[in-house]
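Hey, quick one: can you model this chain's 3D structure?
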Amino acid sequence: MKNIQYVLTAALLLATTAVLAGDDAAMLDRPSFSASQTSTMSAVVEAIDHETRVVTLRKPDGEEITFTATDDVRNLDQVKVGDVLMAEYTESLSIEVMANDGMGADAAAASAMARTKKGDMPGVAAMDSTIVTATVEEINLEKNTFKLQGPDGDINEYVARNPDNLRRAQVGDLVVFTVTESVVVTVEEPPAD
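Sure thing. Here's the predicted structure for all 193 residues.
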């Protein structure tokens, strides 16, 4: 439950402005927020021992990383010195306040992973998503605070960074936090000169 509390706290601190989307008038009345960040990395295969599965990569800054590829790395036999490993990591957060139709606070997580087919260059895509819902228990416009009841039943008080969001929410509303992390790793042949 500490992860859920962390997600709630981090999400609330990040929600400084409302990002409005959609045509539904009811949705436009409630605050929402979304943000996403992506980072990419590349490295060149400097050495590879297919028998021991030991791989050495060189990052663009010259730093070398050596590791033993697990049996989960399918198609390692396709990789050769000079190939380029590309990795992209994306994390996103969305917060949506909506009218509650009788739902309670809850939490759920989902994961998915896919690998390249046998005989192709190695590659993997993986995604983890956590959805946490909390119920608005109290809104205090004078103090600029609100209270949320999370899935564990605890009620915590927070200070709103954007007071206008408090006016656009109601006690009993459901706050839905969605945190998604994804990574895509591919190995490609070096570009032709």
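One thing worth noting: The mean pLDDT is 87.
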